[in-house]
Write a structure and sequence with these properties.
The structure holds two protein chains of two kinds.
Chain A: E1 3-4, E2 8-13, H1 17-28, E3 33-36, H2 55-60, E4 73-76, E5 84-85, H3 101-104, H4 114-117, H5 119-127, H6 145-159, E6 167-168, E7 171-172, H7 196-207, E8 213-214, E9 224-225, E10 231-232, H8 259-264, E11 268-271, E12 275-282, E13 285-292, E14 298-308, H9 312-321, E15 342-343, E16 346-353, E17 370-373, E18 392-397, H10 418-427, E19 431-438, E20 447-455, E21 461-466, H11 471-490, E22 495-496, E23 516-517, E24 543-545, H12 560-578
Chain B: H1 3-17, H2 43-56, H3 71-80, H4 82-85, H5 110-129, H6 138-149, H7 162-178, H8 190-195, E1 217-218, H9 222-228, E2 240-241
Antiparallel strand pairs in B: 1-2
Helix pairs in contact in B: 3-7, 5-7, 6-7
The chains are: A alpha/beta, B mainly alpha.
């Protein structure tokens, strides 16, 4: 029998970006908030020099990622197979502990394009119904880009984003991304400095008629104080950024931006090693959450508002084990919980090798230091006759690569022996990598449910992922490989290769792109979604499910910027609408 | 940015988080001169592992290889600890039929995988060549390793997939060549010197904009930071220009099949 604790105004499940933002906003509004984090407490102070500069610990052994002995997911390519657990991190490691993915991330911080919020409608209007593959279940978001813009802005200023606007209130700006949606103001900080590799990519892609710009980066290019008064240092380009912490608080994480402000209110308490096992409901109301603490006690935390703000896996798993909403059934198409899972990897992947005359110092960098172009993203180009919808943004990025994880050798080089050694010695400092990230449609057969065979250490069934790469993506890949050859040649390497998507998803591969979306998607009605535009559960109005789990499909752009915006929008709605009149915010 | 401003930013951040002073490297008083010794591998196993890593990254004209870097000791220590035990892997059953797309599905921890893999490889070598792996000529050792890898020949074991064993050996040997020397391999930072990696970083705020200029320095490891205090006031490493400039040459190109897909299992070459 769980011990019942003193009620609080709001309980946050999972203290990453979404959880920290919600906690900060609600705590500042005067609510008493408790954050339950199943991983450990992780303070900024742990990331002191020199111990963080350790490739083995952070990149190979994945110190900041989930301990899979406690919980994982299972995977299969289709419903005809038996799903097996992801026993080791492979294609998309996911984080654990305070800060979550917001701590280990690289800091690529994009806004979705206005087009993508109405992807289905816009596609049909321009290309007709038949442009959408038969089994694709893509759907429009319930809000427009313009509605979300103030919240993108709020997130970007909270984290001190570095970049250059390409569109200010409808006017295209030189040096930024001309394809982005209108921004109401300039970035809070100017772009990061330009490395040699960025200059090579910029010159080559501009010569091809593309519009390269510095990638928006959640590393501060100069000292910065955010609107909550939290100070950040300036990036030192040390090259140890992604998968670890930042000793000068230049990489935006919850710990360096919003958590200090939340703690300062005196209204927010973080409980680490607090693993939520159930959201308890009575009728259409969430009454409490049950969790196991570090002493093995089962505790029940009552709250007026429950905020489910964990990673896509946990958000979906918690809804399913708690019996909230109707589980999705791919056979009939009924139910929405677990529906519209999607993900994206690298397409194309272009390693380039320079025999002489160029050195790139790959060990210097910052997580989101890079040069990108968006000419081929979303619907920024005419798809008539191409056989696919959506697209990619392409980037040369220099996030800081040590020789343990980055051993560039030209195709055909043996994997070991003296020839390999000679190639690594020569090309470690003479190689570049250009990568595209792609839109991936949601499909009827790609979904999440509870696994019948495997459990986590708390006795809950593991989440089961059924997923394979779709026909739209394979056709897009063939096209983008062609683009990749064009870009590679313009960069004038001695040797290069261009790789498209594999034909099947491989849970044992190392694609290493984290982004997982869907399962609790947002939509315009209870019939087509799990949460409304304010991330409020249609079934349980005092439950808000916030994160990339709300995306109806993934876009090329990294999800965190949009997760931040959705969080601020939801917090605004709770504070300014819900608290005055608790109940459904959308009827 | 001047130093005072830098420090005030740091301390304001730190104060906001209520944490201890981050601006202190503890200069270690212990750890004087550690003597390395295998604690996982048996005598026969250590003979195998030393011979194997010496073929994976050989000593040659370019300098020391994985054996000279103590990569075998690195692997031994890794297998002794968390990684060897598979402590952070999901190890629960049921086990059973899998597809080729479901990743590692053996009930063996890395530690057991090595133990079984080494025994099976040595048995194969005795059956085929009449000697243990460590006693074979280098060319024969390469032949066996290529057979395990599946690149050439056919080395099939009943107990464990040879390719799975080899992929662990390959990754771990390279890690032992490139990990910080604190973990027991990469002795004298030979791996870092080979590729021109500076190890613990300095501030690169200025240098990142010096395009196409080699940053040719003597590397710094965690030990020298902690023992000798090789850091400046911001506690980043002090890099000294390399005594001998690095010179490497590009290997001759090999014929390439343009349609060969990327081997994502061998990655990651990048991560986001």
């Amino acid at each position: 029998m769980a011990t019942r604790l003193k009620p609080v105004d709001a309980v946050v499940i999972g203290v990453g970006w979404a959880g920290s933002i919600m906690a900060n906003e609600l705590a500042k509004a005067g609510l008493k908030v408790v954050g339950l984090e199943r991983g450990r407490y992780r303070g900024q102070e742990e990331f002191a020099l020199p111990g963080i500069h350790d490739e083995l610990k952070y990149n190979r052994r994945l110190e900041l990622f989930e301990d899979l002995s406690r919980s994982t997911i299972t995977c299969r390519n289709n419903t005809g197979e038996v799903a097996r657990p992801m026993r080791r991190h492979g294609p998309f490691p996911w984080g654990e502990g305070l800060g979550g993915a917001g701590f280990h991330w690289a800091g690529w911080t994009w806004r979705h394009s206005p087009w993508s919020f109405k992807m289905r409608t816009n596609t049909i209007e321009r290309y007709g119904e038949r442009a959408i593959p038969t089994d694709a279940t893509i759907q429009d978001w319930p809000m427009t880009y313009d509605e979300l813009e103030p919240y993108y802005d709020k997130f970007e200023y909270a984290i001190g984003l570095s970049g250059k606007a390409g569109n200010l209130n409808g006017e295209i700006q030189a040096g930024g991304n001309p394809f982005e949606g209108p921004r109401s103001r300039e970035f809070p900080n100017p772009p990061l400095r330009k490395s040699y590799g960025m200059a090579v990519f910029e010159e080559a892609t501009r010569s091809l008629g593309y519009h390269p710009f510095p990638m928006p980066a959640a590393q501060t290019s100069r000292p910065y104080t955010n609107p909550d008064g939290v100070g950040m240092g300036a990036c030192l380009y040390c090259g140890y950024c992604m998968n670890t912490g930042c000793e000068v608080a230049a990489k935006a994480t919850p710990q360096t931006t919003v958590l200090p402000a939340a703690m300062q209110t005196g209204n927010f308490e973080i409980r680490a090693h607090a693993a939520v096992t159930r959201i308890n409901t009575s009728g259409n109301r969430a009454t409490s959450v049950t969790y196991v603490d570090g002493r093995g006690r089962e505790l029940e935390q009552p709250a007026d508002i429950v905020l489910l703000t964990a990673f896509t896996w946990s958000n979906t798993q918690q809804l399913l084990v708690s019996g909230i909403g109707k589980p999705y059934d791919p056979a009939t198409g009924a139910g929405n919980v677990g529906k519209n899972y999607s993900w994206h990897g690298a397409m194309p992947y272009i390693p380039l090798y320079y025999d002489d005359g160029h050195v790139f110092n790959p060990f210097m960098g910052a997580g989101a230091l890079g040069m990108s172009f968006s000419d081929l993203e979303g619907d920024n180009f005419d798809h008539t006759g191409l056989g696919f919808i959506g697209g990619i943004f392409m980037t040369y990025f220099q996030l800081g690569s040590g020789p343990m994880m980055y051993q560039p050798t030209p195709p055909g080089t043996p994997g070991w022996g003296s020839e390999w050694k000679q190639a690594v010695a020569h090309y470690y400092n003479r190689s570049l990598q250009v990568v595209g990230f792609h839109d991936h449609l949601s499909y009827r057969g790609n979904y999440m449910d509870l696994d019948p065979n495997y459990a986590d250490i708390y006795g809950n069934p593991l989440l089961r992922l059924t997923y394979d790469i779709g026909p739209n993506e394979i056709r897009m890949s063939d096209y983008m490989v062609g683009v990749g050859h064009e870009v590679a040649k313009a960069m004038k390497p001695s040797r290069y290769a261009v790789y498209g998507l594999p034909k099947r998803f491989d849970a044992g591969a190392n694609y290493f792109v984290i982004h997982q979306v869907g399962g609790a998607m947002t939509g315009s009605t209870p019939e087509n979604s799990v949460v409304n535009k304010y991330m409020q559960s249609w079934d349980v109005p005092n439950l808000f499910v916030i994160g990339a789990s709300a995306f109806p499909q993934i876009t090329a752009y990294n999800p965190t910027g949009t997760v931040g915006a959705l969080s601020y929008m939801s917090a605004d709605a709770i504070i300014n609408q819900y608290l005055k009149n608790p109940g459904p915010l959308v009827s | 940015m001047d130093r005072r401003r830098f420090l005030s930013i740091l301390s304001s951040t730190v104060a906001a988080l209520g944490s201890a002073n981050v601006l202190a490297v503890h200069k270690v008083a212990a750890l004087g001169t550690m003597k390395k010794a295998y604690t996982f591998f048996t005598g026969a196993e250590s003979a195998f592992i030393e011979a194997a890593v010496a073929r994976i990254i050989p000593a040659d004209d370019l300098g020391p290889g994985a054996l000279e870097a103590d990569a075998s000791y690195f692997i031994d220590q890794q297998l002794t600890g968390d990684y060897g035990a598979g402590a952070r892997f999901y190890n629960q059953g049921p086990f059973g039929a899998t597809t080729p797309y479901q990743g590692y599905q053996l009930p063996l921890s890395p530690r057991d995988l090595y133990r079984v893999g080494i025994a099976a490889t040595d048995r194969y070598c005795r059956e085929t060549y009449g000697k243990d792996f460590a006693q074979l000529e280098p060319a024969q050792q390469d032949e066996v390793l290529q057979g395990l890898q599946g690149v050439a020949g056919d080395v099939a074991f009943e107990e464990v997939p040879g390719a799975t064993f080899f992929s662990h050996l390959l990754t771990d040997a390279k890690d032992g060549f490139f990990a910080d020397p604190a973990y027991g391999g990469n002795k004298d930072m030979v791996g870092w010197k080979l590729v021109g990696f500076p190890g613990v970083p300095a501030q690169y705020t200025e240098f990142i904009e010096r395009h196409n200029e080699a940053y040719d320095v003597e590397p710094v490891d965690l030990g020298s930071m902690q023992h000798a205090g090789m850091h400046q006031e911001h506690l980043h490493a002090v890099h000294r220009r390399a005594a001998v400039p690095r010179r490497t040459t590009a290997p001759a190109p090999r014929p390439v099949d343009p349609d060969e897909p990327y081997d994502w299992k061998s990655g990651p070459r990048f991560s986001v």
